[in-house]
Inverse folding.
């Protein structure tokens, strides 16, 4: 073994008996200071060199080194992180180096620095420089909370090639940002209503949301399905809210219930409970009944069906109409007939039998007459029975009696046709009866009696 001093690599400790400029093992520059200066590692001539096998040939040392303070940077989303390190120019050339990041979105990296380095071995240390790289991941779902590996590269401006690269990691911290929205916020119904609560995440990590709801007046049951939601970063999830009133509202005015939903963003729902019978229905029914009663009062008595009077004498036909409730006297029309059995009888009526008319409605009766004329006798002063006999003896009939409710012993005060006129055989003669009105009893002063003339009835022909 030679006793010549042997230099050791300050980085890996490998002997360098040839006094090379760079360590063949780690590439460290070995001529930073003279052998006799403090800090130089020189093997003693008497020292036994370490026994080791000669290493295999290695590649020449890199011209640029990138050294990081720490290979990992932890940053809050929306915050600022700094990757610090040192760049060293180990070549003999002056060069500028631009930093470039591969593996991260470009907008997450601040303006990359540029290093201006002198050749290796310059006395003022201009061959190396520290650098700071700003990392600004956004506060958004795309900045997912996890470790993001990337590569930091130094690009030579003189050659355009990557002179050095070093791996690093960006760790983004999780954050939670949940929102909630109700669809719809108002519903109405009789049995209940269904709503939807949508929870959205603007965070960068999976989040859990718990939902709960209650009626402020404790008048409704509130059910949420499901009560818990898992929301992915930037995703959405929905839950159904079912509101059911505890009591049925049979009638009256609508009632509003307020439902408070406990969500990432509290929501207030409104359920308008409708009655099965609206409040205005009883009022409308009462008004309708009153209107019907008023119309019936204005209309009067209900309609009366017209009885069958064909084949009857006018006197009997009038009696039947009066018994049916008709108040008006019938109107007579003569019709010449060839059948002797129809003479003096009602042959037709209008309205027809069974038709309904008001009590004051008139009925038209057609009576059968022969084509033979006879004289009309005088029946004034006679009773109804006497007038009927007198008219029958002359081939005529008793017609309409006015008033129809007069007593049978009332005497005829007027007749139509008048006595002495000509009429067809079987024609009815209408009579007006003289009815005495009852006068209230009043004190009568004493008076001298006078003779009263008694009317003499007209002679019956």
């Amino acid at each position: 073994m030679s006793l010549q001093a042997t230099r050791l690599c300050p980085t890996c400790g490998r002997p360098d008996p040839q006094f090379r400029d760079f360590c063949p093992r780690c590439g460290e520059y070995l001529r930073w200071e003279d052998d006799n200066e403090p800090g130089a590692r020189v093997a003693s001539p008497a020292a036994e060199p370490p026994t080791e096998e000669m290493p295999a040939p290695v590649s020449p040392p890199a011209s640029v080194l990138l050294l990081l303070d720490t290979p990992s940077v932890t940053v809050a989303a929306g915050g600022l992180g700094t990757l610090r390190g040192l760049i060293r120019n180990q070549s003999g050339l002056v060069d500028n180096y631009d930093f470039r990041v591969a593996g991260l979105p470009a907008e997450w990296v601040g303006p990359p620095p540029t290093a201006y380095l002198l050749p290796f071995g310059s006395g003022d240390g201009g061959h190396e420089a520290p650098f700071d790289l700003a990392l600004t991941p956004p506060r958004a779902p795309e900045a997912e909370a996890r470790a993001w590996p990337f590569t930091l590269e130094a690009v030579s401006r003189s050659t355009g090639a990557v002179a050095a690269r070093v791996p690093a990691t960006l760790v983004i911290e999780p954050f939670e940002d949940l929102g909630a929205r109700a669809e719809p916020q108002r519903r109405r119904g009789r049995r209940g209503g269904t709503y939807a609560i949508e929870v959205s995440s603007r965070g960068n990590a999976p989040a859990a949301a718990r939902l709960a709801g209650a009626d402020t007046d404790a008048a409704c049951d509130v059910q949420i399905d499901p009560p818990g939601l898992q929301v992915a970063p930037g995703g959405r999830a929905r839950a159904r809210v079912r509101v059911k009133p505890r009591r049925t509202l049979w009638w009256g005015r609508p009632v509003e219930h307020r439902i408070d939903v406990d969500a990432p963003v509290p929501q207030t729902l409104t359920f308008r409970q409708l009655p099965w019978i609206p409040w205005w229905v009883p009022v409308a029914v009462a008004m309708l009944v009153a209107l019907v009663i008023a119309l019936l009062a204005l209309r009067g008595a209900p309609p009366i069906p017209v009885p069958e009077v064909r084949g009857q004498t006018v006197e009997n036909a009038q009696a039947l109409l009066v018994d049916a409730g008709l108040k008006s006297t019938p109107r007579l029309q003569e019709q010449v007939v060839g059948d002797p059995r129809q003479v003096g009888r009602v042959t037709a009526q209008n309205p027809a039998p069974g038709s309904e008319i008001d009590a004051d409605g008139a009925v038209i009766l057609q009576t059968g007459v022969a084509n033979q004329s006879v004289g009309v006798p005088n029946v004034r002063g006679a009773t109804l029975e006497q007038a009927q006999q007198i008219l029958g003896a002359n081939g005529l009939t008793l017609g309409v009696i006015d008033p129809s409710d007069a007593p049978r012993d009332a005497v005829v005060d007027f007749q139509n046709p008048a006595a002495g006129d000509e009429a067809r055989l079987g024609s009815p003669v209408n009579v007006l009866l003289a009815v005495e009105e009852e006068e209230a009893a009043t004190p009568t002063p004493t008076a001298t009696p006078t003779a009263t003339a008694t009317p003499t009835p007209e002679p019956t022909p």
